[in-house]
Amino acid sequence: MSGRAFHVMAKPVGPICNLDCTYCFYLEKERLYPRASDWAMAGDVLETFIREYIDANDVPSVSFTWQGGEPTLLGVDYFRQVVALQAKHARGKTIQNAFQTNGVLIDDEWATFFKEHDILVGVSIDGPRDVHDAYRVDKGGQPTFDKVMRGLDVLARHGVAFNTLTTVHRANASHPLEVYRFLKAHGSGYMQFIPIVERAAPRATSDGLLLVSPDFDGRAGVTPWSVDSRQFGEFLCTIFDEWVRHDVGRYFVQLFDVCLEMWSGLDASLCVFRRTCGGAMALEHGGDLYSCDHYVYPENRLGSIMETPLAFLAHSAQQEAFGDAKDTSLPRYCRECDVRFACNGECPKHRFLTTPDGEPGLNYLCAGYKRFFRHVDAPMRVMAAELAAGRAPANVMAWMAAEDARRALQAAGRNDPCPCGSGRKYKQCHGRSAS
User: Fold this and answer.
1) What is the distance between the alpha carbons of residues 66 and 97, in angstroms, rounded to a whole number?
2) CB-neighbour burial class of residue 357 (10 A; exposed 0-12, middle 13-18, buried 19+)
3) What digits encode the pLDDT tens for the residues 188-204?
4) Is residue 2 very low, low, confident or very high in pLDDT (cuts 50, 70, 90)?
């Protein structure tokens, strides 16, 4: 079956988790399955998914992503079964696995398994102790920082490749450099920064959910833990300013990499910045396929892979319409924006504001993204040019140093110390040529 390429995020334990993070949008999805007693994805569902997902991806290498809830709750033996089933149905294809975890249960057995099968592990951590523990607590309301750090230490000791996923919320958004430097100091070479934006209704909907979709037409307000738009923009700009001067090519930030793609004229590899979406679905524990991980609502259920082939559901008219709506519903205000080429309205989940002229569909994070995309424009142009010329984008750091020196000279007073570091007054050094 033809159609756009697709990826499925598998949730083999559904929304079940050993933590009770305040901002988690997925925990309440348990209410969509009131009769569930065993949340582990059954063997027949698991094998059907693995077989059909491999067959549907007509490429030499097929990538699986395992998430939750918390997938480590299933135990290592469950994922040994996963690897065995992948080998059974690979048909000569290379299989890659990525595993997203809160890190709390990682021990030597898990790390040995990850290393043996070359599994990339994503660990959720929100920064230093105080900001991490603000919202990431266990079922008893106790902090989890020390447990996560122990998990990271185990991964590092076993040489397991890992990256970090950091949600950006009200507690950590005002500490960008503290968060960034903490992640670097603890071995994260690849970082993702995910904005927390949720709306809550005053009472549960008929589906039992409090956190509502952008299409919800009842009364709902942004949750107190959601990041402010401008605050998010400043968070990104501040980290970028340090990264672009010191860390290009040494540390990788997903958003900055995606920006370089877009400034190089390529399609964004991250779905939220593509013109259309619909290529990243979520598979629940019982075999139900949903349009997106952020759209696990009854109206976005595509069907069950135990009743309809996965490829058919992924390329169904319902899913095609869902993906195309990202572009067709974009307000004129966004279509005429100078950073539309990079933003494309970002994730439809966040489009619940109205534009200045009253049109619905403006992204809640619009102000922050405008600030960020405009801020990075000049250095991104330099990096894109270097890349196009076959040179290292990291050369932007020398360009930034020269730009910083030029600005410092322009701003120097005649009797100030010269910014070049000579120890003489500006008027007696580089200021002479400006006289």
Assistant:
1) 8
2) exposed
3) 999 999 999 999 988 88
4) very low
* 3-state SS assignment for residue 62: strand
| Cβ partners under 8 Å of residue 112, min gap 6 | 158
Global confidence as pTM: 0.92
- Scan for tokens 């007696």, then name that residue: 428
Question: Comparing C-alpha atoms, which of 297, 94, 98 is closest to residue 192?
Answer: 98
d(CA 85, CA 79): 10
Handedness of CA 180, 184, 185, 187 (dihedral sign): positive
Residue 110: pLDDT over 90: yes
Beta bridge partner(s), residue 162: 121
Kindly state the helix (H) or strand (E) to which residue 47 belongs, with its residue range. Answer: helix 43-56
Match 């990271």 to its residue by tokens: 152
User: Beta strands of 127-169 (E only): which ranges?
Assistant: 162-168
Q: What are the catalytic residues?
A: 293
Q: Which candidate, 324, 305, 306, 327, places its Cα nearest to that of 314?
A: 305
Q: How many alpha carbons lie under 13 Å from residue 405 in its C-beta half-sphere? A: 10
Please compute the mean of the pLDDT values over residues 11-22 and round it to a whole number. Answer: 97
CA-based nearest residue to 289, from 23, 103, 56: 56
Q: Residue 282: is its pLDDT beyond 90? A: yes
Phi, psi of 137 (to 5 degrees): -125, 165
Q: What percent of the chain has pLDDT over 70?
A: 96
SS3 category, 80: helix
pLDDT at 1 over 50: no
CA distance 382 to 361: 33
